[in-house]
Input
Amino acid sequence: MTLVTAKEQASGREPEQQAHANDPSAPTLRTSRRPRRASRHPLRAEFLRGFAPWAGAALFLACAVAMAATSAQWQGGWAETRERLHVTAVLLGVPLALAAGCRQGGRERRRRTEELMATAVRGTLARSLAAALPVACWAVAGYAVAAALALLATALTATGDRPDLVAPLMDAVALASGALVGHVVGRRLPWRLTPPLFAVAGYVVLGVVAYDSTSSLRQLSPIGSTSDTDVPVWWQPPVMAVWLGGLAVAAVLAHAARRRLTALLPLAAATAAGTLLVQTGDGLWHTNPLARRQVCDTSTAPQICVNARYEDLLPQVTDALADLTTRLDGVQNLPVRFTDLPGEPGPDEVHLPITTPIGWTVVRGRLTDPRQFAWEAGMALYDRDECDTAVDPVVARTDEAVQHYLAPHPLAGHFEKLQAQRGEAERAELRERLAARARLQAMGGEERRAWLSAYFATARECDPREVPAL
Output
């Protein structure tokens, strides 16, 4: 038996440790005591392990792949990026959040630990939040990373306007609310098929309500307006957050709170917010003021204007139309400007070739085909669409000769080769067109400017006797 002296007891050391202290030459003995590890919060395991991180990764991949697959249609335009992100988050992210929360809510039934968890010290509300919040937070985090990458991609090729950070915040509220509601449904209906069926039902309801223009309930959908030129009134986002968040909090409290009547408070707030949204209707949205303005290059004739939302495109458009405006230098009776505003142009204006929707004429902040763009701009300088009868062949050849001189079609040579291989009538028509082009090209500078001035004075005439011929 080992005897412990009073001195050793007073020192608080084990006998072996005391012997080592008295004799430094003695071999060091390892004690069996280990330092006590700091206690960790129970949410740590929920956040770092289990299903929640996988749910966040799945939502990130879904949103990132959907955005990347359609990047040509939004990259370079802030409004288009906002709208595409918003629709992706609601129609794809929210159903995934519903399914993820639903699966998490049914795990106790799958593990057959319901009776065991019922005996835990923590109450039902605390246990529910401990399981639901990690899924909601990871869903928001996954979307946040996808949204940040999309905004960065647009920042590298932006053509004007400015980013909108309110819409991603609203998407985060919708995703978190979806995860919480899904968790409650999973606790109530803990079947294996509940998550996919609930996700499909959520997708259908969100899509039908949002795109049904005849229903006043579409204002309750987090999608709201589907036009990239519309922006919400300042109070719409917080009211929508109260509507979505109130429903989610009411569902959680009604399911797990000790006093379930407390669910009436968030439910009342959600009801008031929803009523306000429905009664306001289309007044929740208005056209972006920037879309009603344009920036212009006044050094050319006609002046070249682009919508203020895409003001950084003006140098590219001016370069694309440089040859056309050079050939029109000194010509009279031209339109004052190419305009890029919604609605009909003014009496002395013509529409600039369309640059929207992004993905056709403009892709990732660049004009895809400047020669095609210039040809379309030249076509806009004359308009005989209002003529009651077919355009006279002589007038049509004159129009085509002027168009070819100002900005030839990029595939004009290819079309001419095909026409030369057809019948005699088509070849004769081709010869007459080529002769008209040659006559216009052979004119001297002053003569051509005078002739073009007379031609553009009749750019909307239908009577062939009024139009100067070649």
The two ends are 127 Å apart (CA to CA). The chain has a mean pLDDT of 87. The longest helix spans residues 124-155. The beta strands are 230-232, 285-287, 294-297, 303-307, 337-339, 349-351, 362-363, 366-367.
